[in-house]
Amino acid sequence: MSEKLPVISGKDFIKILEKAGFIVIRINGSHHRMKHPDGRITTIPVHKNQTLPKGLPRKILREDLEMSVETLHKLIKQ
After folding, report:
1. 2-36: pLDDT as tens digits
2. Separation between Cα atoms, residue 14 and residue 74, nearest integer Å
3. CA 50 – CA 56 distance, rounded (Å)
């Protein structure tokens, strides 16, 4: 069974990804484009301090970042 993802805002998700080496390369309105030195790219919506929709963090982790939920939990604890 997969681990549960925490309820998280876009701002917090960006901070966590920065710990993993991602940097913000462009901001277009409320969407922050992030890139890792190995070439992975994703877009994180930041709407004030609202939480991300339920399935979006899992989709970003699985499809864009190729990162596991366990890795995300480790980054949160750092």
Report:
1. 578 889 999 999 999 999 999 999 999 999 999 99
2. 15
3. 13
Residue 60 lies in a domain: yes
List the CATH number of the domain containing 32.
Answer: 3.30.920.30
**How long, in residues, is the chain?**
78
Q: Please tell me the total count of domains within the chain.
A: 1
Q: Which residues contact 53 (CB under 8 A, 6 or more apart)?
A: none
Q: Which domain covers residue 43, as residue numbers?
A: 10-77
Q: For the whole model, what pTM was predicted?
A: 0.88
Query: What CA–CA distance (Å, rounded) separates 15 from 73?
Result: 13
